[in-house]
Amino acid sequence: MLASGGLDSTVTAAIAKADGCELFFLTIAYGQRHAVEVDQARQVAAAMGVAHHAVVSLDLRAIGGSALTSEIDVPKDRDASKRSHGIPVTYVPGRNLMFLSLAAAHAEVVGASRIYFGANILDYSGYPDCRPEFIKAFEAAVNTGTKAGVEGRPFRVYAPLLTMTKADIIQQGLALQAPLHLTHSCYDPVGSLACGRCDSCLIRREGFAQAGVVDPVPYAIP
Question: Tell me: the pLDDT tens digits for 24-83?
């Protein structure tokens, strides 16, 4: 499964574990501004007792085009109405397409048939590669273009958080005892601290507030 070290992927991992799956983590170090999440993914992997954790380097800074992989400023202090319009500059061109392709390759090598990832269409504004249409199309493509797929061992892509609110995701994570205290969601951290002001931080903070739970991670802006 794709494990970013973030809240959504960690709760997704807890769901996969509850589904009876043995966990094989794949984390992508893609030159992201928030590279601290890779270290958090390692900590989450250790806490969850995964069977294997692979970290793959992929330099998307060579392509750029995103606030996460270039010097474009990360938007800050945007309210929900602004976050809900258009595709934000934090969109990374082709990211989930590439990540899921790598996850399928990893799954084929380890003999897994399920690929879990933490896509969500409610809390993230305008990311086209988090939609059910994309997941369905990718699943069809990967089963057409892999040895496993053509030999009758098709892959299934699972995005169990797809239509859940952030508050519901948090409650699910707590119910499954996911290590939420180890997760990192910030797009533009201040050292190792979450900035508290980017879209991802605001969505996370609102989710914890709506869930009536204290967020266990520290912020640069309280």
Answer: 999 999 999 999 999 999 999 999 999 999 999 999 999 999 999 999 999 999 988 888
Q: Domains of the chain, with CATH numbers? A: 7-211 (3.40.50.620)
How sure is the predictor about 123, in pLDDT bands with cuts at 50, 70 and 90? low
**Which residues are paired to 115 by β-bridges?**
157
Is a pLDDT exceeding 60 seen at residue 124? no
pLDDT at 125 over 80: no
Task: Tell me the sheet residues that pair with 25.
Answer: 53
